[in-house]
Amino acid sequence: MRKGYPVRVALFITCVNDTLFPETGKAVVTLLRRLGCEVEFPREQTCCGQMHLNTGYPRESLRLARHFVDVFSGYDAVVTPSGSCAAMVREQYPKLAHNPHFAAAPAGARRLVPTRAGREFAAAVDEVTPRVYDLSEFLIDVLEVEDVGAYFPHRVTYHPTCHSLRGLRLGDRPLRLLRAVRGLELVDLPGAEECCGFGGTFAVKNPAMSAAMGTDKVRNVLDTGAEVLCAADNSCLMHIGGTLRRQRGGVRVMHLAEILARTEGRA
Amino acid sequence: MGGSGTSSARGHVVDLGMPTFPRGAARAAADSQLRFNLRKATHTIRGKRANVVAELPDWLELRAAGKAIKDHTLRNLDRYLIQLERAVTEAGGHVHWAADADEANRIVTDLVKATGETSVVKVKSMATQEIGLNEALHEAGITAYETDLAELIVQLGDDRPSHILVPAIHRNRAEIREIFLDHMGEWGRPAPEDLGDDPRALAEAARLHLRERFLTTKVAISGANFMVAETGTLVVLESEGNGRMCLTLPETLISVVGIEKVVPTWRDLEVFLQLLPRSSTGERMNPYTSTWTGVTPGDGPREFHLVLLDNGRTDVLADEVGRQALRCIRCSACLNVCPVYERAGGHAYGSVYPGPIGAILTPQLRGMDTPLDASLPYASSLCGACYDVCPVAIDIPTVLVHLRARAPHEPAERAVMRAASWLLGRANRLGAVQRLAARLRRLIPRRAPGPGPLAAWTDTRDIPPIPAEPFRDWWDRTEGGAR
Questions:
Q1: The pTM is what?
Q2: Residue B472, Cβ density class (10 Å: 0-12 exposed, 13-18 middle, ≥19 buried)
Q3: What residues 381-420 of chain B have any CB closer than 8 A to a CB of chain A?
Q4: ipTM strictly over 0.90?
Q5: How many domains does chain A have?
Q6: pLDDT < 70 positions in chain B
């Protein structure tokens, strides 16, 4: 794939966005088409399996990982509006695939000799996963754009989610994209690098901790005086936004893609 | 508990009989004084650490070296421990091997009894906390006096340590003043009646109280941060100088040290003497570094005993993923950055090892047979801050996930997870669920009746509105927005 050129991309919407946040998916489609990409939506896609893996169900996760690599092999690039799911696929799939305790051995087997299916899965993982990108990585590293032609005349603060920050190491990529948006005033979020407390099933297994972390995050968001809280992951925004709405915080939450998709015509 | 009766030689780490982590943590989160104390203390140390780590251009290389040295040593632990034993013995010390907590406690108790003494002074030590040595000595009629300032506060307050480096981190200075006034007299020289809560005055009261103890006690018990195999040298890093007193003044010194604390050579030690103080107290160098090699006639203790403690460590070593926890040098940087520790406090972890490292160490040393221990691998949002600051690169989130797979699961949860995996296994199944949710979306209450995971969510957060049409149906209807 040549850098800076229009490419054929598969959109991995993620199960959470598909079900609860379709507007984020529509924004990604709008944005990528505007930048000259051919966007496809592989119809058989479902879920990356992160919830299962992180809750202690690697075998159930493995079923979904196998499905993912089946669906997404053969594309130039797979783009997803979730730093967390991108990190799952890129960081965890290779570990799952090459772990003889799970993937390579037949279910329940005591022998850890890789089966043919296990070897094929590992090869598919090695082929597919390096081409899976979080949206801001794809824009900055592959398409090599910072100014995506967006217009959004609002005061915005950005929460770098843990898996974007410490999993994918997105660094300042999302901030560079936001700074190039016309009309947008970007304000720093105090304690930005601290976890919001979502953590997948952590939010319901340790509800008091999750709520305490969410409340502190919300206080920091309110202190900025921003109108909009932006992040690259709707799962974290669902937690922070749900806390904000319960506390009548008056701050909107928006996925990065939805801000980047806005243009002068419909701001 | 632990060891006895079970087939494996599993460790016996003192179990504090706490409720599961979520319940203990919820209780702590509701204590505003505790929240304030912990937030202030952890954020202060966190900031100091970040500053002194940023000073070193070769920090990542040091970290990689620390990891490599520990991994090499653990792979060859049998060889280095034998080398260490030989070197300590040649230098005039005695080496004892303890398979578990009971054996270690018995060895130490017998050694103290043999001296005819009924009291000992102690240098701050995690290993002796782990095995409940003070309690074992107490049962044998021997009083152990803690001499580290924070351990003293915990002991006088009849409390439990809540942090690896700062055991009394949950106390503020007003609380410490009250503990000193109320309880110092029961243990020795009382605190002055006009004691204020100025840190200098509190430290002076402790100094006067402890000085008496140092000058009269003939047996000391310590742990060690490192043991150098090539020379049989033990190393303690500390800030207050109480350790130096205990290690030099008494006639008999007994050190209880986990077998993973060995490093091959003095050259290796150089790496850790840089990593540990910067990660731990946020200092370039700690005020006191004491090293001792066996005994030296006319200088320091006349008798030296080293008790090498396994207590579950060789079991941990057998786990390919979990064994990296044995690289830990007990700096507590992971506690100080952990958003969960900051709000839960150390006691919720029900172990002398709290925080992220405790969440992976305790279940491995003690097993996951109790509801508390089975809840520890879940005591994390997997935010990864602990891994980033770990000076020996322990990938704590990966070990947590690894332990979650081995933890006992509630049957109801397992059923839900299996059903979810089946539903998500095919797009048409997911689509059917989505369309059902869309149809019922107006019936979903803002707050779910509890208990259950849905109520756990809606107690403090709104459920996002369910859209009328999932993304996949929009794509089908409009051909991806083309129509």
A1: 0.94
A2: buried
A3: 381-385, 387-388, 398, 401, 404-407, 409, 413-414, 417-418, 420
A4: yes
A5: 2
A6: 1-11, 15-18
